[in-house]
Amino acid sequence: MGAYGDVDKTNEEVSLDGQSKRGGPKSFVPAVKTAADQLEAWKRLDTVMVPVMILLMGGVVVFLVALTVGDWDYWQDWRDRRWWPLVTPLSFIIAPAVFTYFFWHYFRLPVAATCIAVGYGVGVWASRYFNFHVFAGFPVNFIAPSTFIGMCIVLDATLALSRSYYIAGFVGAFLFGIIIYPLNWPTMAPFHVPVEYNGFVVTVADLMGYQYIRTAIPEYVRIIEESTLRTFGEHVAPLTAVFAGFITILNYYLWVWIGSILTRSRWMTKLV
Amino acid sequence: MKKSQKVISLVMLFLSALAIEMVSMPAFAHGERAQMASLRMRTINWFDTEIFHAGTGERFHGEDIKMKIGDELLIKGKFVPSEWWPEHVNSVEDAVYLNVGVPGPRFIRIDSRINGVPMIRSTRLEFGKLYEYEVRLKARMPGRFHAHSVLSIEGAGPIIGPARWVDVTGNEEDFENSITTMTGDTLNLETYGIRIIIFWNVFWFIVALGWLGYWFRKRPTVMPRYIKTTELGDDADSQLTMTDMIVSFLFFGGVLVATATGYFVTQQLYPITTPLQTGKVEVPHKELDNSVSLEVLDARYRIPGRSFKITLNVTNNSPHPVQVGDYMSGGLRFINPVILPGLTRADSHDLLSPDGLTVETPVDWIQPGTTEKITIYADDAMWETQRLTSLIYDPDSRFAGMIFFYDPSGKHRYYQEIGGQMIPVFGEYQATPSI
């Protein structure tokens, strides 16, 4: 018996029933005996761990976005020009910033944000389709999620090109905050076409929000266009985008720093 | 079998039966009984509610309303925001939305109005004023649903009105919801824009898989990079190759170009768009007819008898003799069968007590120009079953309700809201010497 409890450190060969061929006590079979075995084990680790991590990180962010962005991203008639493009990148960048530190510091892999966007995409589409469409009965077009993949690739690519958290934040996070609106505009614009309904001008999205009944979400609950950023007339979205870009930079730096604290292997170092 | 085993067996049997009962029990209504008594009695006085098939006008009295997919349902009636609104509940003077209580988009809302004003947006209301409302729904999915009128009040939540059971049959695949935009396009909102949404989502997933595929193209990736990054230490960046830089640059630029292209192409496809619309609309109110005025002298709720007794002075300034026909409070309607004989429940969940109101009055009819002191008794087990007996646990022990007077012909009706302090009685009613 070695110093690590039941684990036999001697690489002793054992029979299939776990008994030592020398008649000793039952011990573990070493999984890796050669360099080829090592390589195969690492390949299997990649095959299993990478998809699992993508889905886990995505699942975490599905909850994060549900808690912090919520209705702004659930419904077509909540994606306004002021709050949705401000709140969403500010919240969504938290997980990419934390995991960017981990993936970059330990592996030099600029993939954290994109992994999260893909995992989030899978999770959020499953949630919207099964919860909102199949269970609750809303049309898919009304509850389709936004996409953040383009923003995340820009963030990752900036880190790869600059090899600097500082520049990745200053350029990548700024673009992360800025491009959310144009990135999603192709799927939002059809729902901003005006309709005259009962003597009111509404967008298609507003009309769907009115027609497809949400008993617990009366109209006044929506936070639409409420803010003071009105200096440049009707150009609300660009102004919001620039503001969102600036505060996303700050949030990126904050969460990269928090990521650097969270990923320190303090306890493992003490144990091993 | 030991005694303790028997007890455990009985408990397990009971819990199993309870679980089976709970699992097999269908969902009833919208939890209106769970709301505080003060919320139901002293916020919105709903009355004259009618819910019927809008196409045929059929009421389906005594049974579920039968509809097919695509048929329209009309919910209409009147309400008065209570003058005795609880201080601890947010007011209707801030933001109100005429809603409807159905299980999500099983129906779509075609139209909703208060005093003729479309309620696509929120509004503000005033206490003690009369509002007439109607909500027109179109059946979208099959099933049996409890359809309520609802007034959502900011900070106070939904105040649930009367309801009817609606049975919708048909195939939901047949449902279409076509509208015409101001640009002249006719759309089916059930499927509109879905191809664009799928295209862009698939496109970005493919791009992302391309980016991740590049970085994970070598197998294994994770552990060798971890070892190399650890070994290189401060020089860890040196493991990134020129190819990595070129690929990163291509993806960086490609994403920005795709984003800009998508944006500008969309601008060409949809040159006319407007921001989301919001804001409040103003609703002109109507005044209640004050021809019959009321003064509450005493109100007591006798808990053992589920009986509400109200003594009041009635002054009839109308041109007709009148008498109390019914009293409504918290959605319950108590009928004086002497004045309104033969009323029956619209369905199994109609909160109507056809003979629940008794009137003690010195005269059969209160003549024009006279004032009479009368006492009404609203007695029914519904006080208990609808959990309105809990009004004795409200923080301010007050009540409110609507009282309706009719002339002998039944053609003229006058109504007012009454309210005031409520005294609970834990035994028998006693004489109240002060009145």
Break the fold down into its secondary structure elements and pairings:
The complex is a heterodimer of chains A (272) and B (435).
Chain A: H1 35-68, H2 71-74, H3 84-92, H4 94-107, H5 112-135, H6 140-143, H7 149-162, H8 165-178, H9 180-188, E1 194-197, E2 200-203, H10 204-211, H11 236-262, H12 266-271
Antiparallel strand pairs in A: 1-2
Helix pairs in contact in A: 1-3, 1-5, 3-11, 4-5, 4-11, 5-7, 7-8, 8-11
Chain B: H1 3-24, H2 37-41, E1 44-53, E2 65-68, E3 72-81, E4 96-101, E5 107-114, E6 117-118, E7 122-123, E8 131-139, E9 143-153, E10 157-169, E11 178-180, E12 186-188, H3 194-215, H4 222-232, H5 242-269, E13 280-281, E14 292-302, E15 307-316, E16 323-329, E17 332-335, E18 352-353, E19 357-360, E20 371-379, H6 382-385, E21 398-406, E22 413-421, E23 423-425
Parallel strand pairs in B: 2-10, 7-13, 14-23, 17-18
Antiparallel strand pairs in B: 1-3, 3-8, 4-9, 5-6, 5-8, 9-10, 11-12, 14-15, 15-20, 16-17, 16-21, 19-20, 21-22
* Separation, N- and C-terminal Cα atoms of chain A: 18 Å
Give the helix tally of chain A: 12
Q: Can you give the mean pLDDT of chain A? A: 87
Find the CATH topology of chain A: particulate methane monooxygenase, chain B
- What is the name of the CATH topology of the largest domain in chain B? Jelly Rolls
Q: Output the CATH class name of the largest domain in chain B.
A: Mainly Beta
Name the strands of the widest sheet of chain A in spatial order. 1-2
Percent of residues in beta strands of chain B = 25-35%
At CATH level 2, the architecture of the largest domain in chain B is: Sandwich
Radius of gyration of chain B: 32 Å
Strand content of chain A: under 5%
Q: Any overview of this molecule?
A:
- By secondary structure, chain A is mainly α.
- Chain A has one domain (54-271): particulate methane monooxygenase, chain B (Up-down Bundle), CATH 1.20.1450.
- Chain A has 12 helices and 2 strands, in the order αααααααααββααα.
- Chain A has a two-stranded antiparallel ribbon.
- In chain A, a hairpin with a 2-residue loop joins β1 and β2.
- The radius of gyration of chain A is 25 Å and the shape is globular.
- Residues 1-18 of chain A have low confidence and may be disordered.
- Chain B has 3 domains: 31-181, Particulate methane monooxygenase, b subunit. Chain: A, domain 1 (Jelly Rolls), CATH 2.60.120; 194-269; 292-425, Immunoglobulin-like (Sandwich), CATH 2.60.40.1580.
- At the A-B interface, α1, α4, α5, α6 and α7 of A face β4, β5, α3, α4 and α5 of B.
